């Protein structure tokens, strides 16, 4: 005997018979409607479970006026736009990427992948902070989103980007080129 919550058994003969009688499922539902559970695409949407979300936390509250005071801080020998939030110096991640990581990783998307793996969650800038960063030239004029990272978290990210785990045949530059780039960066610091 079938479990009371199991869907009714469907044989190819009963499916063929229901289709011959004109009981075709709505387009896009395929065989799902043959189970008698779903009657329209809306039923399918109502039973859909959303995928797990990996979104960033909401932007910084605009209620703290000091959170919108941008400073140019000296970090690793370069001037980087930063905000002081809850006592931490938070660097403009796209600008720090351009200055320190662009030659080490494929792109900013690679940085976000590394941050997820390192369990580091950057802070999302609010609208006013984005406006300020655009005005300073820290981010491109068309950019309307930006994230901030503490110096400590950026140090962790930088260390991860400069530590070779493996070298594949299709890497963009040779291992000696990477070693020279790392030594040049360390000499600057």
UniProtKB/TrEMBL annotation:
Keywords: Nucleus. Residues 59-162 form the SKI/SNO/DAC domain. Signal peptide: none annotated. Its main location: nucleus. Pfam families: Ski_Sno_DHD. Belongs to the DACH/dachshund family. InterPro entries: Dachshund_domain, DNA-bd_dom_put_sf, SKI/SNO/DAC, Ski_DNA-bd_sf. The keyword Nucleus applies. It is found in: Nucleus. This is SKI/SNO/DAC domain-containing protein. It comes from Molorchus minor. The keyword Nucleus applies.
């Amino acid at each position: 005997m079938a479990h009371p919550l199991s869907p009714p058994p469907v044989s190819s003969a009963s499916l063929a018979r229901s289709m011959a009688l004109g009981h075709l499922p709505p387009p896009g539902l395929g065989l799902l409607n043959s189970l008698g559970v779903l009657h329209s695409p809306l039923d399918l949407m109502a039973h859909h479970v959303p995928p797990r979300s990996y979104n960033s936390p909401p932007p910084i509250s605009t209620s703290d006026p000091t959170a919108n005071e941008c400073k140019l801080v000296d970090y690793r020998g370069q001037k980087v736009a930063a905000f002081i939030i809850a006592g931490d110096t938070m660097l403009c991640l796209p600008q720090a990427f351009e200055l320190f990581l662009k030659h080490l990783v494929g792109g900013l998307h690679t940085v976000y992948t590394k941050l997820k793996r390192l369990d580091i969650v950057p802070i999302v800038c609010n609208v006013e902070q984005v406006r300020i960063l655009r005005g300073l030239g820290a981010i491109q004029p068309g950019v309307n989103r930006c994230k901030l990272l503490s110096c400590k978290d950026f140090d962790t990210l930088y260390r991860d980007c400069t530590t070779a785990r493996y070298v594949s045949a299709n890497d963009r530059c040779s291992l000696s080129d990477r070693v020279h780039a790392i030594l040049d960066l360390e000499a600057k610091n």
